[in-house]
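2024-03-11 09:14:02 INFO worker-7 job=invfold-0412 stage=load source=structure_tokens
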């Protein structure tokens, strides 16, 4: 089950505190440090642009395909270790109906990075794509690729929204700062340094942010583990104390849902532009692989503190704290358990350090989402469809305007809990059930064509809607095996239905691509009905392959002659 921290604003007003001035000073210093780093990186970007012979858009979006290895590792890790990652793991571990076994994020991300490094990085880099949508645009044309870009853009906008929500809730607990002010300030800072220097600014600020996340979280852990209100977490791991054991269990009838959530996190991440932006910015394929593998290890390490914080919260006698009873879970505040634990179980100065980790995590994910969506719009829609002759200077302004628009849209959504919930589900599910099978087919199956892609696209959307979603009170029209009422009385799919939809979508793409290829190649339908021109493209592909083969043979013959003459 996915932690719902990213949708829920903190509503605790029972213990109203005075504005935490020292905390505000520390946060102001943090934001100035990040903004200063972003400005410095933007100056570096301009220097690189003068030295580089490539176009300015590639420098802005991919750092000239020459990002430093260490910086690449930091920015890829920081992109995945966001506010939802830190707060969500703590929530799942603390939640008595879930437990640590449902805090899935770190382990699936290891699979994401290994699959990306071994399989997806190579074809994307060999073809020198700028975005993950380039292969779709080249093979399927502008109309269908524009439809496929839509869910990716929606997912990025909602990525901005859900990361900001997690920060707003945390600041309202620890700093007692207005939710609105904390959201707006964070959004403005992230937008400014992202539009100033593109990927250079994002990557170098990610270095600062990841260091802060690592140090801040691990500084807080000893204070939490030794606080007088909690018992030893090793005693509560498998024993009932103040609540159910924090390790949790996966019952046999819940195994399908657990597997579905695991696969969604593992494979859904491979359909995000932010991932490909990092591996395409590396100077070589080997560097891209090393970046992926190292980032997977960092994700595991950075997930440990959140698990420990959730475990401490589950082992706490809240009645002995100033928080009192009912417990955070009973007040429906499990989503804010990390800031609540920092506020009531650690000294004030430690809780301020902790909020630095959350703020850094939020900023590191938000700037990635801003640049990711700006990349898709500017490169695949504006440059390739609207203004093919756009100059570098014009494209720079398009990217900046895109960053601002996406930032404002995501910020606006943070004030509408239910809307964020709806669109988050749309974004995440579409990344897995629709975009992932499309990406697999276009990269690894030559038979795929526009007809199959269209059928798979529609199949994924229709089946996902008909499968229902209890979080938005959408009842399932299709009831997979094991569909039943959950603890809240809502009809829920316990079968791995998202994975089933993904597989069905993938098979539909391949099957209908193969059938339409036979229909037009055998002349069963006239070529004038071939909307996607698959027969013509196959001929041009074959011609290009012949030319390439001829050139290779000529090159080999020349090398042989040179060797003989020597």
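2024-03-11 09:14:09 INFO worker-7 stage=emit residues=566
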């Amino acid at each position: 089950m996915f932690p719902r921290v990213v949708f829920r604003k903190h509503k605790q007003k029972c213990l109203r505190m005075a504005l935490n001035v020292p905390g505000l000073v520390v946060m102001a210093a943090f934001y100035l440090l990040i903004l200063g780093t972003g400005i410095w990186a933007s100056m570096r970007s301009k220097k690189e642009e003068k030295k580089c012979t490539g176009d300015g858009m590639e420098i802005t979006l991919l750092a000239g395909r020459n990002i430093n290895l260490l910086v690449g590792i930091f920015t890829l890790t920081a992109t995945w270790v966001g506010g939802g990652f830190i707060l969500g793991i703590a929530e799942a571990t603390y939640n008595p109906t879930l437990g640590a076994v449902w805090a899935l994020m770190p382990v699936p991300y290891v699979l994401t990075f290994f699959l990306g490094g071994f399989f997806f990085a190579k074809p994307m880099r060999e073809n020198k794509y700028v975005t993950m949508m380039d292969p779709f645009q080249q093979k399927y044309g502008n109309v269908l690729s524009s439809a496929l870009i839509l869910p990716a853009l929606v997912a990025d906008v909602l990525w901005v929204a859900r990361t900001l929500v997690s920060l707003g809730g945390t600041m309202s607990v620890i700093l007692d700062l207005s939710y609105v002010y904390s959201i707006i300030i964070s959004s403005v800072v992230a937008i400014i340094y992202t539009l100033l220097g593109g990927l250079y600014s994002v990557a170098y600020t990610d270095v600062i942010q990841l260091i802060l996340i690592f140090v801040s979280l691990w500084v807080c852990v000893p204070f939490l583990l030794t606080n007088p209100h909690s018992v030893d977490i090793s005693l509560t791991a498998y024993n009932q104390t103040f609540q159910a054991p924090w390790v949790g269990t996966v019952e046999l009838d819940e195994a399908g849902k657990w597997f579905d959530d695991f696969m969604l996190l593992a494979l859904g991440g491979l359909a995000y532009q932010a991932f490909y932006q990092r591996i395409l910015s590396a100077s070589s394929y080997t560097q891209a692989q090393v970046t992926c593998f190292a980032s997977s290890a960092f994700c595991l390490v950075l997930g440990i503190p959140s698990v420990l914080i959730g475990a401490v919260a589950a082992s706490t006698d809240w009645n002995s704290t100033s928080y009192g009873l009912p417990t955070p879970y009973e007040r429906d505040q499990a989503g804010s358990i990390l800031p609540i634990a920092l506020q009531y179980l650690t000294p004030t100065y430690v809780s301020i350090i902790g909020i630095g980790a959350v703020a850094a995590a939020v900023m590191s994910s938000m700037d990635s989402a801003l640049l990711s969506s700006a990349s898709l719009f500017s490169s695949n829609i504006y440059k390739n469809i609207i203004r093919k002759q756009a100059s570098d200077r014009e494209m720079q302004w398009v990217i900046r305007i895109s960053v601002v628009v996406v930032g404002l849209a995501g910020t606006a959504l943070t004030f509408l809990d239910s809307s964020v919930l709806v669109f988050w589900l749309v974004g995440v599910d579409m990344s897995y059930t629709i975009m992932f099978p499309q990406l697999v087919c276009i990269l690894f199956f030559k038979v795929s064509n526009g007809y199959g892609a269209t059928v798979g696209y529609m199949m994924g959307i229709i089946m996902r809607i008909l499968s229902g979603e209890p979080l938005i009170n959408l009842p399932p029209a299709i009831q997979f095996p094991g569909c039943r009422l959950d603890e809240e009385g809502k009809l829920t799919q316990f079968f791995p239905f998202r994975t089933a939809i993904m597989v069905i979508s993938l098979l539909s793409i391949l099957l209908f691509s193969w059938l339409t290829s036979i229909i037009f190649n055998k002349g069963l339908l006239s070529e004038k009905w071939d909307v996607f021109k698959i027969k013509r493209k196959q001929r041009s592909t074959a011609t290009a392959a012949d030319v390439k083969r001829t050139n290779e043979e000529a090159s080999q013959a020349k090398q042989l002659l040179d060797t003989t003459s020597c």
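2024-03-11 09:14:09 INFO worker-7 stage=report msg="The CA atoms of residues 521 and 535 lie 6 Å apart."
2024-03-11 09:14:10 INFO worker-7 job finished
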